[in-house]
Write a structure and sequence with these properties.
459 residues; mainly beta; five-stranded antiparallel beta sheet; 38 strands; 0% helix
């Protein structure tokens, strides 16, 4: 049965079975269709995999890999995600991954013969179409990286370059890739890679972590390498200034996120500068699995399987601080592989966070209070409320002030009140006498894209 679930989470502590404290993040909506096919190698029962996001034509979209489909959602109204596209593949698979370039999304899958899919969002929301689907260059790939500056696609773990990289170009025509190179590399198989400019940061499983200069794709150069440390290098992302890479190791369980210092990369020297593990784990519990990390500004977003999404402040690069967590998989079973949060996407302009849970589907998350990139905030009080609600703007500056929009939702996502608070108004009272007692959700959206979301109890 297909279902959209709206669940506004209050701050709470879970028992040992759930392993985490959920705080600072709330779930705005969930989409899960139990009727969709399930990929079940080894009885894993994986229904969903990688996710991504895209902002185009003043709309926001979430892309989610399902066992047999690529699912596309319009999440412009986060509490009411709309399934805007459902594109079927040819086989059920555990692995689907995505990257975007301009107004296109590029999709790959592993253990299939599906090759590359390209989705054209240029005419969205009227039309979202699969503009390309071909296995001309490869049948399967484990993951995909994309340099948005050059328009180069790097296929990791593909059948066409299983011991290195397959490189395609879409800069001339985003719907018609051309082959640049298929090369073997000293680190061999690449599970996933991060690319910035012509430099590829490759997670090569137990072999280690490699950095390649791909300026000339047919003549790659090793810039530096980090031998295997006993864990399976799974994924990495670079800090905004490029000095540090944060690396996950999926196997065995209980590996921390590594902090790799890249400052001496030009001298063919990189080193592990530190590591960190979730400090909220109960005493003695050390089997969590960090899976995919992504970085936005000074925030690191870690999809950690059965622990859900964890957000760290990395302003101090070697001393990350956990500032937010949402457990997408509260039915934790003790850190078995392939359960829980697979990946996330934190870069949508509105500030919402897309997360994909392997069993629980699309999760749309938001901060209880604004975070990065928000210049204005507000107080919404009293709470509990009775006959009125007051909105007081904070960090208010008449130079930058814009109108802001207030909306009130039921827990089922029904919009029951909407009003505009003019730019010159610092405080506004809203009558609530017409409301029945219960729990509601208040949303305040500012002109700069900032948003305040609060659960409000009316008695």
């Amino acid at each position: 049965m297909q279902k959209i679930i709206f669940f506004w989470l209050y701050l709470s502590s879970f028992t040992h079975a759930t392993a985490q404290t959920t705080y600072n993040l709330i779930r705005l909506a969930q989409w899960d269709d139990n009727a969709l096919p399930v990929a079940s190698p080894g009885n894993l029962n994986v229904q969903y995999s990688g996710c991504w996001g895209l902002a185009v034509n003043n709309r926001e979209y979430a892309i989610l890999g399902a066992a047999r489909h690529v699912l596309i959602f319009d999440v412009t109204t986060p509490a009411q995600p709309v399934l805007a596209g459902k594109f079927e593949g040819t086989a059920n698979t555990v692995w689907r991954e995505f990257k975007s370039y301009k107004n296109r999304v590029y999709a790959v899958s592993d253990a299939t013969q599906e090759g590359l899919m390209i989705f054209d969002f240029s005419q969205a929301p009227d039309t979202i179409r699969r503009s390309y689907w071909s296995n001309t260059f490869f049948n399967s790939a484990h993951t995909i990286a994309l340099d948005t500056a050059s328009g180069r696609i790097y296929l990791n773990g593909s059948n066409a370059a299983s011991q290195g990289l397959l490189v395609l170009d879409v800069s001339k025509n985003p719907d018609q890739p051309s082959l640049l190179a298929a090369v073997n590399l000293p680190g061999g198989y690449i599970h996933d890679s991060y690319v910035r400019g012509d430099t590829v940061y490759a997670s090569s499983g137990f072999v280690g972590y490699y950095v390649y200069d791909m300026t000339e794709p047919t003549k790659p150069k090793v810039l530096a390498s980090l031998p295997g440390t006993g864990g399976y290098h799974h994924n990495s992302w670079l800090s905004q200034d490029g000095r540090f890479a944060y690396c996950t190791e999926e196997i065995p369980t209980g590996r921390p996120v590594l902090i790799v210092d890249l400052q001496e990369l030009a001298d063919n020297n990189i080193e592990i500068k530190g590591s960190f593990f979730d400090p909220q784990l109960p005493a003695g519990e050390n089997n969590a699995i960090p899976h995919n990390v992504y970085i936005k500004g000074h925030l690191l977003f870690n999809s950690q399987y059965e622990d859900g999404l964890l957000v760290y402040d990395i302003s101090e690069p070697t001393g990350p601080k956990l500032i937010g967590q949402y457990d997408t998989h509260p039915e934790n079973t003790g850190y078995n592989r392939y359960f829980g949060c697979w990946g996330n996407y934190p870069w949508l302009p509105s500030g919402i966070i897309i997360a994909g849970d392997m069993q629980n589907g699309l999760q749309i998350l938001g901060w209880e209070t604004p975070r990065e990139g928000i210049s204005e905030s507000a107080e919404i009080f009293p709470n509990p409320a009775h006959d009125h609600l007051t909105i007081r703007r904070l960090n208010y500056s008449p130079v930058f002030a814009t109108d802001c929009r207030f909306r009130l939702f039921t827990l089922l996502g029904q919009n029951i009140r909407e009003t505009t608070i003019p730019a010159g108004s610092i405080e506004k009272d809203l009558p609530l006498g017409w409301l029945s007692p219960g729990v509601y959700v208040a949303e305040l959206r500012f002109g700069d894209g900032g948003r305040v979301i609060k659960k409000i109890v009316v008695n």
